[in-house]
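seq:
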Amino acid sequence: MENIYLDNAATSFPKASGLGEFISNYISNFGVNINRGFSELSYEAENIVYNTREILCEFFHFDDPSQVIFTKNITESINVIMLGLLKSSDHIIVSSMEHNAVVRPLSFLHDNGVSFSKVKCSKDGELNPEDIKKLVRKNTKAIIMTHSSNVSGKIFPLKRVGEIAKEHNLYFIIDTAQTAGFIPIDFHDLNADVITFTGHKGLLGPQGIGGFLINSVINKKVRPLVYGGTGSFSHLERQPNTMPDKYESGTLNIPGIAGLNFSLNYIKEIGGLEYIREKEIALTKKFIEGLMNINKIKIVGSLELTDRCPVVSITTDKKDISDVAYQLNKRYGISTRVGLHCSPWSHMTLGTFPQGTIRFSIGHKNTNEQIEKVILALNSIMNNK
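struct:
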């Protein structure tokens, strides 16, 4: 039975073709540390790490590789910024569609004196940026917002949000977990101060590598989350402020960075983001059209193909959605995700809390034939065939 993987919003699979072999070769032949050795191998490793920062600058239209910081994932990146920037008595603005990567550190900060306001999105998951203006207070410091919902797939109009942030002298921090590797993202065009990213989703890299891009203005205000050895300024007892050392204590996941380097180049080689977006949106269109012909299934959120990622969530009042997801996997080899997708706020907004949805998230290796098989499988399950 063919395995049909439709959980790319959680992590992409298959990864960039050849990624496993590349990482294996790297570990076997170049697997030394950086900033901590005096050898040709160490220099080679340092070159790969620096080149990866340069390529990420290309992807995000950013201009300073030294201010591209590596972490283990986007959740850590968001924690670095939120916990390092916000203090008791600060106020921030978020959307009602945020992932727990924002919600949980926000809850911790709220328990420690940080207040927040939530921009209420529509029942289809639409964000009206103008609603942000009435939430701004004298002590508002930042807007922190996802670029796209991992439940409905809706891409938010963050360029306007960034303009509003600048009009009110607020920092603007963006979560690109669902958009990086799918659409072009321009750091300056979005008026961003920080863009956080993860390597293992749309960027087609391995798990365990992520990071953020930070401008020099907000960088002066953010405290590191982790302190320790950086391989530099070893005579100092205090953390250096030199970038990227300020945020990169301890040994980095260098094989992961090398793998991300490989996957970023792979994306360019197969035709870039334009190729990926065109293919994945075409498959999403085919899938939505097929779902609309199945009785008893409701598509959650907007049906529009513009301003969306290749994520489609469904629900039904006729069957237990966990059982439907189980049958898809057991009988047809179709991998999905069912439940709240680590985003309860989104489901409260969309009206699917607490049961959640079945989420189908399409990747660049999926095919028309696979989408047709999924539609047939859902039709069979919903009609008890």
